[in-house]
Design a protein that fits this description.
By secondary structure, this protein is mainly alpha-helical. It has one domain (about 5-170). About 85% of the residues lie in helices and about 0% in strands. It has five helices and no strands. It has helices at about 5-35, 40-75, 80-85, 90-125, 130-170. Helix 1 runs antiparallel to helix 2 (about 40-75). The structure holds protoporphyrin IX containing FE (HEM).
Length: about 180
Amino acid sequence: MTATWVSVLAAYLHLLAVATYVGGSIAMELILGPAQRFVPPAQAQILAQKSADRFLVLVWSSLALLPASGMLLFFSLSDQSLVTSGGIFSTGAGRTLLAMMALWAVLVANGAVITFVLRPRLASRTSASGGRAAAGAQLQAMSRAATWVSRLTRVDLVVALVVVLLGASLAYGNGIL
Ligand code: HEM
């Protein structure tokens, strides 16, 4: 049995990361998003960009902390035989933990698409040098990128809420898969 303080620290960091990721996503989606509709479009765009810049730092910190603290939790606190006895696929707890890790990978993949593909498109400035047609095409590309950011953010929130359910089923039962 590993020292209790390691379990406490692991659980503390895991829950802190979950609270930051899920709480932050809910605040962005249900509070900041709707409030932006009451602001003129140009200002709303700046507000969205600046708040997303800051929120992405929290997102990536949480995504990095989750597997580290989760593994520490697993090795220090959980009854590991519940997960590993007879192979990780053969127990409900094992399948639940694998599903959590797979869904975490989905959050990372979506986060990478938003950070490295879609956000640079949103941040690019329209220039008049290419003419009206080019500026129009660029605005369309930015609007498509904004739509995809919003879709992926919603998918991430649903995925994260499912992982919270899986985590709770693991902490207070034998997993649900
Ligand atoms: C690779 C990624 C992850 C690993 C290895 C992992 C590992 C674990 C483990 C082993 C537990 C159970 C501890 C116990 O038996 O008491 C747990 C609990 C939990 N996990 Fe994760 N996890 C990961 C990602 C996530 C993500 C992405 C979320 C949600 C966004 C999440 C939310 C939770 C919650 C809410 C609990 C229950 C905590 C409690 O009530 O004590 N986990 N996790």
